[in-house]
Amino acid sequence: MLPALRLGQEVFGYVSPAVQRLAADRLGTSPARAEEVATFYVMFHTAPIGRHLVEVCTNVSCCLTGGDRLFEYLKHKLGVANGGTSPDGRFTLREVECLGACGTAPAMLVDEEMHERLDPKKVEEILGRLE
Questions:
Q1: Phi then psi for 56, rounded to 5 degrees?
Q2: Where along the chain do its domains lie?
Q3: Which of 78, 100, 77, 76 is nearest to 89 (CA)?
Q4: Virtual CA dihedral for 73, 74, 79, 80, nearest 10 degrees?
Q5: What average pLDDT score do residues 7-33 get?
Q6: Using H for helix, E for strand and C for coil, what is the string for 45-73?
Q7: 68 dihedral zone (left: phi>0; alpha: psi -120 to 50; beta)
Q8: CA 94, CA 115: separation in Å to the nearest integer?
Q9: What pTM was computed for the model?
Q10: In angstroms, how far is CA 36 from the centroid of its own chain?
């Protein structure tokens, strides 16, 4: 189910109910099973997201090094709440529990690319390179 939903998300942008039904049908299981998997794992998006997904770690190590302040900075800059998409549709911002970069905190993941040892200036540079 995981690979089927991942492929559906890559093709259609998110795991809509139609994508869930398609995956379930192809795998010979119920749409409810596909929905259970799609809503359990945070890597699946069950609603459309912005062109770029920005995920900021606010777990202990990242918070101690400013991750929580970076998250607040990005919420203000992008004009969104946690899980929200900027009005121009460019960015979806999400707070995440752990990115596994405790030794190089604070960290954020942008479109599945890890960025570490961040400060507001570095965040600005990273976002500025995105279309």
A1: -110, 130
A2: 2-40, 52-128
A3: 78
A4: -120
A5: 97
A6: CCCCCCCEEEEEECCHHHHHCCHHHHHHH
A7: alpha
A8: 15
A9: 0.86
A10: 19
- Strands of 113-115's sheet in order across: 91-96, 52-57, 108-110, 113-115
Asked if pLDDT for residue 23 goes beyond 90, the answer is: yes
What pLDDT does residue 69 have?
Answer: 96
> What is the topology classification, in CATH, of domain 52-128?
Glutaredoxin (3.40.30)
Asked whether the predicted pLDDT for residue 57 surpasses 90, the reply is: yes
**Greatest Cα-to-Cα distance within the chain, rounded to the nearest angstrom:** 50
Distance CA 73, CA 71 (A): 5
The encoded tokens of residue 76 equal 């203000």
